Amino acid sequence: MSTTTSPAAGVGNFLDERIGASKLTKTFARKVFPDHWSFMLGEIALYSFIILLLTGTFLTFFFIPSTGVTTYTGPYSTLQGQEVSEAFNSTMRLSFEVRGGLLLRQIHHWSALIFVVAIIVHMFRVFFTGAFRKPRELNWAIGVLLAILAVFEGFLGYSLPDDLLSGNGLRIASGIILAIPVVGSYVSFFLFGGEFPGEAFIPRIYTIHVLLLPAIMLALITFHLILVVVHKHTQYPGPGRTNDNVVGYPLFPIYTAKAGGFFFIVFGVTALMAAFFTINPIWLYGSYDPSPISAGAQPDFYMGFMDGAVRLMSGYFEIAAFGYTLSLNIAIPALILPGVLTTAAIAYPAIEAWASGDKREHHLLDRPRNAPTRTGLGMMALTFYVLLWIAGGNDIVATHLRLSINDITYTLRVLVFVLPPLVYVITKRICLGLQRKDREKVLHGRETGRVFRTEDGEVFELHAPLSAEDRWTLVQFESTHPAELESATDGSGVRRPGGLLNRLRQRVSRFYFEDRVEPVTPAELLEAQHHGHEELSASGGEQPQVTAGTH
Amino acid sequence: MPAHDDHDDSAVATRGDQVPDRFENPGLPAHQHRMADTDAKAAKRAERQVAALFTLSMVGTVLLLVAYFAVKLEYNNMSFVESLDQLRLSNQLLGGGLAIALLGIGAGAVHWAKTLMPDEERIEYRHLQRGTDEERAEATAILKLGADESGIARRPLIRNTLIGAMAMFPIPALVLLRDTGPMPGKHLSETFWKEGIRLERDQPGGGAVKASDLTLGSVVHIMPEGLEEKAEDLLNERAKAAVLLIRLEPELLAAESVPGSYNGIVAYSKICTHVGCPVALYEQRTHHLLCPCHQSTFDLTQNCKVIFGPAKRALPQLAITVDDEGYLVAKGPFSEAVGPSFWERG
Known about the structure:
By secondary structure, chain A is mainly alpha-helical.
């Protein structure tokens, strides 16, 4: 029973007696979260999703999801008298005649782009810092699913206004569906309610866009966040930060203000973009008609990589035999490639854990340089993605750089295979180099820029030793060794089962961990300090010790 | 003077004479106070800045409200350009006001947290996700007890019929989707074109095309005459029936395309054989047709064979001739399915 009379205490008492609010407050209000700018990427994605829900709801008040034909009579004079669909007509009315309608439509569209960008960048942050490692593999998989759903959701939303651009996007989608072996035309007929474009797709994708996918995504996001609380947030290595603690600021009041404020900042920036930068001006394209098209047509950026893969493919791969047609020229880039990429992304944490044999929990993030192979692989994937994305705009590249579109396409066909491995090697070398640089810094201190000359005329730069805190950040990591090959036979000379798998694992492990740089040990530092007295005057530095480097 | 003279060997933690294998975590660095923590004036300044940002937000909201009522989206007696300007003004004022309102709150809250709320880091400890052995044993026991109580192991009849029911239950969900669309049948292989249908210009007003109207090198976007009136699903038919009509020097045509041509005039399906975009770009000099979606390129002089890009099949030709009045007409339907490939296409 409440003994005070203040209104806040009254509310608190009400909630506590009904939902145990005091226990919840005790558990969650002072929960500690670490601070780092890169942790805000996921926040941007989350806030964009909320903005999408808010603005999307407003749009539904005016949008009519119908392909019914009507005559445009609105204020945009160049379209007046044209036959357009209800969907297009209502989007035009929303844009031109509803105050704030254009603004909210543009916020919605910009927000969708920011949502996908934030997800992609957030994923790469998680990847490069190793935040996907145990115990977060499931949350990584949820994230991958969310990324895919976000792309689908974006594409459906883009298709709703039924303008010329989005209609051609759907035409491509229908062509891709037709390329599904055996059942393609059936899937296409059931999805579109008959032939393309038909009249069913706008109401159908509308329901999927505003209800089905958002509901699934909301559920996944909730689960994603619950797991963040369950696992407690990862943190970057540094003095005082360990694998067993989390160092940061409490949820209430610090993160309530910071994260809450950041929501308003994300929303505000999106509003600013919507106020001053036009996006998807459907009045320039007109209502969809399967016959006309505009040159230089581009999908939203997140479809770009898939479109690029489709563009790069050669028609050679379409096979017609025994009275059937197998369109591998479409199926490989548009169906198989996204499937392979998704599977690889979801499986990656397990692959790396298998290679390292590490079954411990990891809450301290890796500095990307300290995981050279992973960082190399990530950059390789990123390069592949960006090349395909560029291929998706090969016509834009051609017109802007005045190059032959054929040359660009031929070049990119080669580059998608050559450049990613090259980037892998270069990135890995850079990482190892940075690790050696770290060693040198720990062993010999940081450069001060102060140059001295001795009486003998010898010149050298004064190095200042690192503080224990600064040094810790550079030496705290563990350098994983490749897995040892278990002997193929056990103690009594009987062949072990799974010998082949074991050898494969050893090869993968060597691929990952053979080239590595060990952190400086206290003994090495002591040695360097004693050594430094005589040695520096001769050469000005020593090669840091690198174990097992083969390149 | 050696460079490392000022090094202190005690920087390496030593226990007696033993050097540890790894460095030890030095712990959190000493906390550094901010200006606002130590200087009351600085704190007051920060307070005023936060309040100013929140006030700015209110100004933004007022701006939005004023813009909403002052800038109306009524375009009476406005020219095309003026009406677009009106829309832009409304959009910028509303959006600008909203942005100020939101950014004021956001920046204010963050500034407040960063300058005035305590910034001493706190430590919380983590626990392994895994339960203790006792907890795991208990959980296993509970599950086992539950399973025992349900009797699912002892009564295989129940278990097996349940599995059967659960396996069959989703089938209706798939079957219920059957009526989402008709069977493909021959739809994908048929178009509106048949013998004697005139070629009509695909533009407002339309109009059939006379062979004599076509000059050398001209390109006309074509639809079958009567499509608008007779087609059941106009867009579906347009999506298949679109044709490009081009007049070339007769000697440029490949031998295969000559039977379907008339005096160097040829008609080809405009729907890309890749994924179905309209192949609408014609390069007069090279006689190439280019699809703007994925750049499949078709050579008119080679019966529209693919010479570049992801498409495999040539654009199907629509055989044409002229009727008694000199208008171009189809000699018959397309001899193969137009548009993207599909499994049953053959």
